[in-house]
Design a protein that fits this description.
heterodimer, A: alpha/beta, six-stranded mixed beta sheet, 36% helix, B: alpha/beta, Inosine-uridine Nucleoside N-ribohydrolase, Chain A, nine-stranded mixed beta sheet, 15% strand
């Protein structure tokens, strides 16, 4: 939940030596979806094995999060990497986004590796967020993949968009200058495996010590979205499609909707660039390079 | 013996002895099809099941789907004449799907985007439902029976309990009507075999590139498909888009078949459809006749999305551990085949003279 996540991010910034980057705590709950309603929905439409913070218990060896039992939002379990001394900045994530795009019009990339709740709230605080931002970059959605979805047989239910479909709908239909999507399809072509983790651990920086203790093997969902922003040429296949999300509250709730651009669609559906393939070797090298830099690296 | 002879005579007088008093030990099958024609996948699937020496076709029941029921009845009658089996009854079924209409479907598109193929509703070739354009293959002289498809199916299942395979090559409207009239019907059938549904076909065809879960038969009557997939059939086998698009009926194959010189073979070549050559329904039929054609199948629980939004008509699937709590039978979904073996069986059946009823 957001309170524990905020603590994890603050501690990460301390470890990486970048405490000047402000952290803003955002939405604790999605716009409409809820744990309670999801559980009732599951009886009708099937169990969703991965529900993020709403999962009652993760099976052992689950790759993307540590094993823990469900706890309520206000509970912040002690951080294995140590509790941070710094604190979050005042104000909410949505307010900060509005201020940032107004302060630097045309320059700010809104990058999301999560459910789109904060972005949707920002868009509803100030409709010009979409036109003032430079680009929306999201890890989310699933198209033709045969694994990696929140359901085993249909990867179009991708966790981030399923967790808050209404927010994804608001975000995907807003008039951004550009939308770039890193879906399940490309994510499942990568793997943070034992040899890459081992190589990274050799660097012996505070960050790599932390990664060797706390990072897990698995698909590199959000890392792709991040690295592709810095180095777009790692993407070797991408397509422009109309992309939306199903918010009907039936069996397809939260599923990715898409149309090829040759289709005739209503005008409120917007084109997005969807990434489908990457140069994995270059991607791993860039990841290694970034993770192993000395503490405090990067521009100020 | 006398009592049974009397009963048969009585049934004959009542016009219900539509089934030939055959002594064949064939696999009894009802062929429910949206019999657009002439030529094409629907006609070819009917031909596969009628030509096979293993089957005893009880009747061809007709449903609106690719075309309207009445014109489809004409194509089915003519096909059976050409094959040389006018004894097989053609039984008219539903004119429209259970719930929605063409107007609703076209209005839906203004919200959710154009569907690539709308069958009988498609504006590219649409005509009024009861208009029967003159059949290019010539009009039939035989007539359909007066009984409707739903009652015919129920009657056959009760007459031959646990012996009748229900083959479905079109929208499931007739099946849904039957099981709503008689809930015992699915339990009395031997199995259900259908072409329908789509999981994740590997194709650049816009019909599935924009929605891998869309398939025409389910989409045309989603409520019927939901009712049928929720019913207690002893066994269900599904031929989805995923496997269908691995097959192609080429002109060269039609020419090869035509070399046999039978009326059916000449018909298949003359009315060869070049625009779409996937062998949807033929494959579902052939795989039922010879399961060794299938090289891969998977068991799923299957349903259809009935939400009226963008996912209306989409195929839903689950495995055992994530399925909904309401019970439904598992579906054997065919996912890969030995195409060469399938083509050989198809060509052999299409080239052979029609098996005679006894």
């Amino acid at each position: 939940m957001v309170r524990e996540e905020t603590q994890h991010v603050l501690r990460l910034l301390e470890i990486a030596g970048r405490t000047e980057v402000p952290v803003y705590q955002g939405a604790e709950f999605p716009l409409l979806n809820s744990k309670e309603e999801t559980e009732r929905w599951e009886a009708l439409y099937g169990r969703i094995p991965y529900k993020g913070c709403w999962t009652d218990r993760f099976p052992p060896g689950r790759s993307t999060v540590l094993e823990h039992v469900y706890h309520p939002p206000e509970v912040v379990p002690p951080l294995p990497e140590g509790n941070p001394a710094i604190q979050a900045a005042p104000g909410t994530a949505a307010q900060f986004m509005v201020e940032a795009v107004r302060k630097f019009p045309g320059e700010v990339v809104l990058w999301s590796g999560a459910p789109l709740t904060n972005i949707a709230r920002a868009l509803r605080l100030d409709a010009e967020v979409a036109t003032l931002a430079r680009e929306l970059v999201v890890m989310g959605g699933g198209f033709y993949a045969d694994r990696g979805g929140a359901n085993p047989t249909d990867a179009r239910r991708e966790f981030n968009w399923w967790f808050d479909p209404e927010a994804a709908r608001i975000a995907l239909r807003a008039p951004w200058k550009k939308v770039t999507i890193t879906p399940i399809d490309i994510s499942v072509k990568t793997r943070l495996g034992p040899s890459l983790r081992h190589q990274i651990a050799q660097a012996g920086t505070p960050l790599t010590d932390y990664l060797s203790r706390c990072s897990l093997e698995g698909y590199m969902w959000d890392e792709i979205a991040g690295i592709a922003l810095i180095e777009p040429s790692i993407i070797t296949a991408e397509r422009t499609m109309y992309v939306d999300v199903d918010i009907d509250h039936g069996p397809s709730y939260g599923m990715t909707l898409f149309w090829e651009t040759s289709n005739i669609v209503p005008p409120y559906l917007r084109p997005a660039t969807v990434q489908f393939d990457l140069d994995t070797e270059r991607f791993y090298r860039t990841y290694f390079d970034l993770m192993t830099r000395p503490a405090g690296s990067g521009s100020r | 013996m006398k009592r049974w002879a009397g009963l048969t005579l009585l049934l004959g007088l009542l016009g219900l002895a539509a089934v030939p008093a055959s002594g064949r030990e064939g696999r009894k099958v009802i062929i429910d099809e949206d019999c657009s024609g002439p030529g094409g996948s629907n006609m070819q699937a009917v031909a596969v099941l009628v030509q096979s020496p293993l089957t005893e076709p009880l009747g061809v029941t007709v449903v609106t789907g690719d075309a309207w029921r009445d014109e489809e009845v004409v194509h089915a009658l003519r096909l059976l004449e050409i094959i040389g089996r006018p004894d097989i009854p053609v039984v008219p079924g539903a004119v429209s799907p259970l719930v929605r209409s063409r107007d609703e479907a076209l209005a839906w598109e203004t919200l959710y985007g154009k569907i690539a193929y709308r069958g009988a509703w498609d504006p590219r070739w649409w005509h009024e439902p009861f208009v029967v354009p003159p059949p290019r293959e010539g009009p039939p002289t035989t007539k359909p029976v007066s009984e409707d498809a739903a009652h015919f199916m129920i009657r056959m299942a009760r007459q031959y309990p646990h012996q009748v395979t229900v083959y479905e090559g079109g929208p499931m409207t007739n099946l849904a009507l039957a099981l709503r009239l008689d809930p015992e019907f699915p339990k009395l059938a031997q199995e259900l075999v259908f072409m329908g549904g789509s999981l994740n076909p590997q194709s650049t065809d816009p019909e599935w590139a924009s929605n891998p879960r869309h398939e025409f038969n389910f989409w045309f009557d989603p409520e019927a498909a939901h009712a049928v997939l929720s019913a207690p059939w002893p066994k269900i086998t599904c031929t989805p888009v995923d496997i269908s698009i691995k097959t192609h009926f080429t002109h060269a194959m039609a020419e090869q078949i035509a070399a046999s010189g039978t009326p059916l073979a000449a018909y298949l070549l003359k009315y060869y459809v070049s625009t779409i050559d996937y062998m949807w329904d033929e494959l579902a039929a052939a795989a039922w006749l010879d399961p060794s054609l299938v090289t891969r199948e998977q068991s799923f629980y299957m349903d259809v999305d009935l939400s009226r939004g963008p996912s209306y008509g989409n195929t839903l699937t689950w495995l055992d551990y994530d399925r909904p709590e309401l019970p439904r039978p598992p579906v054997h979904v065919l996912t890969d085949l030995d195409t060469e073996k399938f083509y050989r069986l198809f060509e052999q059946l299409m080239s052979a003279p029609a098996p005679k009823p006894q």
